[in-house]
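Predict both folds.
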Amino acid sequence: GADRGVTDPATLLRTLPQPVIGAINGLAVTGGLEISVCCDMLLATPATRFADTHARVGLVPGWGLSQRLPRIIGLLRAKEMAFTGNFISAQQAYEWGLVNRIVPETELMPTAITLARDILSCVPAAILRYKRMMDGGFDLPLAEAMDYEREMNRTHTGPSAETVAERRLGVQQRGKQQST
């Protein structure tokens, strides 16, 4: 029979268990915007621009943009993007909460790599569970999301108290070293 598995790139990206960093330099339009909103973090350059041109060309989203974008930037802003097809700048995207940071083009990949290394310096099992908790809870009403978090917390096997204490000292040292 026909393969009924998920094949669209946005949903496939969203189902990855590990964090996904999107590094965007240039245009992220329509499908590119749909893929962008599936990333866990977005970096942009001053040249980056975003647009939802579905309606401008006579289409409607099928990869989740109509639901994800309003949850990220707010319903009214998402409607403005969707109903006009107009581009927004990297700065506007940053102010609206669509991107985490704007960095010079030469710093885009080094910044993404630094973020990835910072993620890798955390406990992998905790990162994977935390991402699942955030994504799963984000799709629920708040009261259900709070129950979901409690259950995920209850069923998480954390490290020993001694290991946590050791790691806390490392975190404190790191905080003293990072003055930004």
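Second protein follows, with its predicted structure tokens after the sequence.
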Amino acid sequence: LSTPASPKPVEPKSILLLGPPGGGKSTLALQFPQCCILDNDRNMDGPERFVRSKFKQLSYGYVQITYDDNGEPYPVEQCFDRLMDQISLLRQEVAIRTVVVDGLTMVNEFIIQKILKTKAVTEMEARHWQPFKSHMIALLAGRLRSLGKTIVCTCHETILEKPDQKNIMNPIVVGYRPSVQGGIIDYFGGFFTDVWRCTCLAAPAGKSEFKIQTVRDSQSDLKNSMGMPTEILVKEGELAWLKLEPFFSKSYE
């Protein structure tokens, strides 16, 4: 029985960071406290350089999924199983508070290659998309959420467009969706407590700004569970986590 005097325990957050390449998703993920990065696309050098320039004591766990522990390339069709195994190992790591899967668009390819290898085919057929969905659900709703830690997943976005009758060379953007396949996209956000869109924008004087959108609009199916504002703007040189941390702290009170 959950009552005001004795509410149910707050569940750990599961956050999807959606956005274009270079939008700051990995940089934001790296700022979460005591995180371990499960790196699927070898794209952490830039984010690490930026965050450490502001927070020189930065220390985090790191696992390269596409290479084995000896630095040898890992077979792509086996990378999904390696990812799942590495997630399980983190369950007992008490020093790790945040597990980051960077990024889900590459995991999408891992699952496809696993199915092609298992079924001994060269192309995905209609009957193969059900096991694809099962693998993705096992990752998002099973393995990750069972850790009891904050989960952050990054994912590239697919731009949805329609023709502009007045200018056929410049289509109109009508929306953004996570860049994953297999029909699961229709309810993808349901696996997360929060879905935010990250973009990096040009600012005056040749500078840049980082924007986090947290509330659903006509173009993106976003949500937040912590009462955050519709947009959070981070100026060049600032760490986004300093603006996010108060909302996290309040949500766990």
